[in-house]
Amino acid sequence: MAALAGVSQSAVSRAFTPGSSIAEAKRQRILEAARRLNYVPNSIASSLTTKRTNIVAVILGNLANPFYVEVLRTFIARLQAQGRQILTFTVDNGADSDEAILRVLRYQVDGVILTSAQLSTRMTSICHDRGIPIVLFNRYIPGSDASGVRCDNTGGGRLMAEAFLAAGARSFAMIKGDPKGTTSQDRVRGFTERLIEAGIARADIGEIEGQSTYDGAFNAVLGAYRRKPERLPDAIFGINDIMAMGAMDALRQRMGLKIPDDVMIGGFDDIPESRRHPYQLTTVRQPVGLMVDEALSILHLDEPAQPIEMGIDRQVPGRLIWRSTIPTPTASSED
Amino acid sequence: MAALAGVSQSAVSRAFTPGSSIAEAKRQRILEAARRLNYVPNSIASSLTTKRTNIVAVILGNLANPFYVEVLRTFIARLQAQGRQILTFTVDNGADSDEAILRVLRYQVDGVILTSAQLSTRMTSICHDRGIPIVLFNRYIPGSDASGVRCDNTGGGRLMAEAFLAAGARSFAMIKGDPKGTTSQDRVRGFTERLIEAGIARADIGEIEGQSTYDGAFNAVLGAYRRKPERLPDAIFGINDIMAMGAMDALRQRMGLKIPDDVMIGGFDDIPESRRHPYQLTTVRQPVGLMVDEALSILHLDEPAQPIEMGIDRQVPGRLIWRSTIPTPTASSED
DNA sequence: GTGAAAGCGCTAACAA
DNA sequence: TTGTTAGCGCTTTCAC
User: Fold this and answer.
1) Cβ atoms of residues A302 and A79 within 8 Å
2) Distance, CA of B247 to CA of B321 (rounded, Å)
3) Fewest CB within a 10 Å sphere: which of A127, A183, A315, B147?
4) Which of A301, A281, A290, A238 is nearest to A83 (CA)?
């Protein structure tokens, strides 16, 4: 390219580097030649010297949960607007992410965002040793010095418990997700704690496993209550919206029950589907945009020289969105 | 790394290159040292010489349509299994993809997959000149020599027309998507053609604009029929499932209609949500896995030396999935 | 099977 | 403001 345009290599480099000292006329001339020759600078080559690729890795669990689609979409939107590229990886839900991380490290990514996967301490230190920041999204790994952002899951669980209590529920069940994940655990814990505080007996708080999926919850509900409808509690808390939706469909379409008349339902996440007519799910909203911004700020991609922030565990509060799967005690508030 | 392990640079390179001539003992020794030193080969550097990055770009429209989430997920699964990385890009639905393509070209991707976006001939030739194959997914650009894979949308539209006709419908409406996209156009055309052939009058085939989204279709249906229920046709064809779902919700929850008793509904895509209880949508299934495989075969990532396949327009047939939004004339067949 | 040396396309001093 | 030079971390001849 340089030769063809009759200028030095450095001139070309400068022409494509905003803020570098080059005469405006020359820059224009080079840009014009580049267009004519269909020249596109090679970012791969430049990152070899700059040590910056402008690539960020996003490692996700299964995209079957629309919540994570929303998360991915938000990360893509933000990063793309900053001129960064996204290397997307999926790993099986809850599986360990070692292989994925090793692979993205080969590509010298500027940062790693990890959702729905385990992170070994070995990988954490490998990343940190190489100066690559890593942030956990909606996940907390006890004992890890990796930083992360998550919703206040415990608090969110409490909010849901309060909503049910206010509506008069006295017996409960939870549909849990990945039993190893802190996200599900925390929501379960907050929910349970609040109920106990309100004087509910442990025996009146049931738990079933929904595997974090629509089908899992659908089948779990059928398995638990279809033949024993007498066991049905007043209220069921789906640890995430997609499971709450599976539960609703099983309850209504397969068992002929009315929601919230026969059983109340609560969810968590506030995915777009939750507000749709068939569901109108009362749920705890996670502020995805805010959480994404927090995650990116922990990565501080713009100041690579800054030391990596370790051990941060940023929690942002969720918010209860009243819709129609729990009778509203007083006034209702759709957003 | 080489120095630290007391071997040559080349030896390290060979140790990490399957099939290169190196003594097994030496390879093991190097691999062991690498592990100890947390060494990870730099793919960025290697691609500078090999001219292969093992990165494939996937450019998508909005992820609000679950169909494209499914598509993305499938591409990720396949490519990841092949040891390739995915650079994900989103562009506004139907917007041109020039900027996105220029950006991925800087990263020397081995191939480009493009869905839901326009592709200029200039970009096509830039890619081809540099030997980068590009494949259109579910999109056909007339006059372009870019290759692509798509469902037989015209045929799918015909299938839906036949289903409605068999169920006795005599008046129709379509909820169209992006008016500039061939995908929507083809489905509309096939549907209309078949109806005309069956003797339906043009006046009995209405069209409304659903903007390819749930909300768009929801509102369009309300706008078209709420105050004029007498205009309601026997059958409504949502050009994609997400719009069919929006239409169903509007019809049932806002207008109190029964499906299929008061109005039949058909969709296209067969997204996972379509089989769920609230919808049980009769739709035309796109064989995503097959289409993805076809797309990847057109890219022939494994034989970069082969000339780029141009002008291919591979069409795979869709299949009608009978569920419950159209009364089945005779026997029904869930997949 | 192995190492030395050249070079991939760029950026970053440095000197002019 | 400009061009020259020396690498960035790897792969690839090419001798050995």
Assistant:
1) no
2) 19
3) A315
4) A301
Two domains, one topology: B51-151+287-317 and B153-286:
yes
Report domain extents, chain B: 2-41, 51-151+287-317, 153-286
Q: β-pairing, B283-285 with B264-269? A: parallel
Structure tokens at B193: 């053609």
Interacting residues of B174 by C-beta distance below 8 A, sequence separation 6+: B187, B188, B191, B192, B205, B206, B207, B208, B236, B237, B238, B239
SS3 state at B319: strand
To which H or E segment does residue A294 belong?
Answer: helix A288-299
Tally the residues of chain B: 335
According to the model, what pLDDT value does residue B329 have? 79
List pLDDT tens digits, range A256-291: 999 999 999 999 999 999 999 999 999 999 999 999
Q: Which residues contact B24 (CB under 8 A, 6 or more apart)?
A: none
Q: Is the CB of A46 under 7 A from strand C?
A: yes
Q: How far, in Å, is the CA of B10 from the C1' of nucleotide C13?
A: 29
The beta-strand segments (E) located in A48-110 are 55-60, 85-90
**B273 at the A interface (CB within 8 A)?**
yes
**Alpha carbon separation from A163 to A191, A274, A282 (Å, rounded):** 10, 17, 9
Is B98 an 8 Å CB contact of chain A? no
Establish how many alpha carbons lie within 13 A of residue B136's alpha carbon, considering only the half-sphere containing its beta carbon.
31
Class (C level, CATH) for A51-151+287-317: alpha beta
Residue of chain B whose alpha carbon sits nearest to that of A35: B126
What the block records as the tokens of A245 is: 């939706």
Helices of type H across B107-260: 121-129, 153-166, 182-197, 214-225, 241-249
Q: CA A27 to CA A32: how far, in whole Å?
A: 8
Contact between chains at B278 and A278 (C-beta distance less than 8 A)? yes
Q: Supply the CATH classification number for the domain A153-286.
A: 3.40.50.2300
Q: Is the CB of A276 under 7 A from strand D?
A: no
Q: How many residues does chain A have?
A: 335
Chain A: nearest CA to B111, how far in angstroms? 14
Say whether the CB atom of A3 is under 7 angstroms from strand C: no
Q: In this structure, are residues A58 and A28 in contact, taking their beta carbons and an 8 Å threshold?
A: no
Low-confidence ranges of chain B (pLDDT < 50): 332-335
Sign of the dihedral defined by the CA atoms of residues A253, A258, A260, A262, in that order: negative
Closest-approach residue (CA) in chain B for A56: B87
Which strand ranges, in their side-by-side order, compose the sheet holding A172-176? A205-209, A172-176, A235-238, A264-269, A283-285, A319-321
pLDDT in tens, A179-193: 989 999 999 999 999
Please give the Cα distance from A219 to A232 (Å, whole number).
15
A 183-202 residues, CB < 7 A, strand D? none
User: How close is the nearest chain B Cα to the Cα of A77, in Å?
Assistant: 8
pLDDT of residue B332: 47
Strand D interface, B 46-85, C-beta < 7 A: 46, 48-50
